[in-house]
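so i finally got all the pieces together for this one. its two components total, 549 residues if u count the protein bits. some of the lines might not be protein, just check the labels. i wanna see the whole assembly predicted at once instead of chain by chain like last time, that was a mess tbh
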Amino acid sequence: MASLPRDLFFLSAGELNQRLVKHEFKASELARAFGERLEKLGPRYNALALSLAHSAEKRAKDVDGDLKRERLRGPLQGVPFGATDILSVAKTPTQWGAKPYAGQIFDETAAVIQRLEKTGALLTGKLATIQLGGGPRYGSPSASITGPGLNPWDRSRWSGGPSSGSAIAVAAGLAPFALASEMNGSLLTASAYCGVTGIRPTYGLVSRTGAMPLSWTLDRIGAIARSAEDCGAILHEIAGADRDDPTSAGKSFYFFPRYQRPVREIRVGFAAADFSDRVQPSARAAFAQALDALRSLSIPLKEVALPDFPYEAMVETILSAEAASVFEPLVRSGKVNELADAEQIEALKAGVEQLTAVEYLKAMRLRRMAIAKIHEIFFEVDLLLAPTAPSIAPRISDPLPAAAERYPAPDRCLSGLAAAGNLAGFPGLSVPCGFADGMPVGIQFTGLPFSENLLLQAGIAFQAATDWHHRRPEV
Amino acid sequence: MLEFMAHPQEKRAGIFAITRRDLAAVFAVTAVSAGQTPDQPEPFDARKRLQENRARLDAVDLPMHVEPAFVFRP
C-alpha cells in the first residue's frame, strides 16, 4: 500500500482537496493509495463489487497536470470516490448485486459519475449493493451477490443497505465519499448504521440516467461522505437538469453555506416520543444529547406530528408495482429464482402476478393527498427532525424486522418519516449523533423540495457543535 | 428419550411408566424436530403482505376527484 499517513484515509473530501492544491501529495498517489486500500480491505467487509483503481490512476495523471498548472475545478478535484453498483460505467460490469445480471455491461457511464469525473474526482471502484437495489423488499442482509455488508464498527453487524458498500467504504476510510441510491430510507439508514453522513436529494434533482431502474417515482441518487459540508460540495456537482432523464426536475443546486440565514432562525419540528419511546433504550441518551446540542445552537424546536396515512403500505404498493413492471421479464423467464433472497423472489413474483392497477392507482392517489397534508406541517416549521433509525445496526444473523414492529410508534410522532419523505420527494440529511452499545446512531433532517441548503446548514451547524462525524472504527 | 424424561422417583425405583406429562413432552419435542418451533418467525408471505397493504389503503377515505401523483407532460 502507498506510504501516505493512515490518517489521510479518514479526511474529508474538502480537506484532501486542499492538501492536493497545496501539492502536499499528488492525485495519482492518492488514487493509488485509496485504490489499493479498497482492493485490500473492501472484501473484508463485502463492500467491493469491482475495482477501478487502474483507470483512476490513469485519470489522476491528467488531474495532476491541471493541479500543477493551477487549473482548479473545485473541492472534489483529485478526490477518489466510489459508486454503488447500480450505476453503470462504460464497458465494465455493472451487476446490480444480482446473479442474473452478472457480467452485464453497458456502453455509457451514468450521468452522475460523468459529472463527478468532469470535476476531476476519481472513481476508484464500484461498491456492493443489495441485489436489484433491494426492491421491492428483501429479508436478509445476505441478499447480495457479494454477501452481507459487514459494519466496520462491528463485523458481526450489518452495514445497512441497499447501498451497503457505499456506507462501508466511507466509514472504513476506503473512499472519502461514495454515490448511493435511495427509495425508502435506505441511504440515510446505512449512513446512520455506519456513523457517516448521507444526503438524499429532492426527487428529480440528480439525474438517474445510467442507474438501474427500480421505482420510477421513488428512486434517487445521493451521496455518503464524512461531513455535511462534503455532501453539499458533492451535490453541487451532481445536481442539475438532464434531458435524457424524463424525471429530471430541470433544476440546479448551488451550495453556498456562507450566504445562508443564521441557524437559530431555522424552525425544526420534532416529536419527543421519537427520541424516547420509539428508539432502542440504550440509544436514548445519545438521542437526548443530540436534542441538547441543537438547543445549544438556539434552534427553536417545536412538537409536530405527521398526518395519519398508511405510509409504509403506500410505499410498498408503489414500489411493488413499479419494480414488477421493470423486472417482469426477469420473473416471466424464471431467472428471478436465481436471486439470493427468498423474500425478494416472492415479492417480485407477487408484484407481477397479483398486484392490480387499481391498487397501484389507489396508492398513488393517496400519495397526492398525503403530500398535500404533509406540506401543511411546513407552515410552522422549516425542517423535520427524527432519529434516522430507531436502533443500532442489527446483527447479520438476525432477520430484518421492520423498525415499526420492534419499537411501536406512539400516536403523535414522526413515525413513518422515511416513507413519507420518499413518497413526497423530500430531501433528507442524516448525521451521526452518538453511540449506543458501541455502535453509531444518527439523526435525520427532512425538508421541503429543493431545501437542501437548509438541511446542510443545520447539519453543518450540528457537526460544528459535535465531533461524532470525526469518529472512526478500528480498521 | 423416554428414559431421559422418566420421573426421578420412577427411575430410582427402576420402574419406568409413561405418564400423560411425558407424552405431552414427547409431542412437543417431535414438533420442534419438525421445525415448528413457536419462537421462529413465519416465512414471509408476499401475497399476504400485498393483501394486508390493500386493506390498509382501503381504510383511508379517498374522494373520487383525487388524481394520482403522476408526473406526466404531454
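Helices of chain B lie at 8-12, 20-33, 46-58.
Chain B is about 45% helix and 0% strand.
anyway lmk what u think
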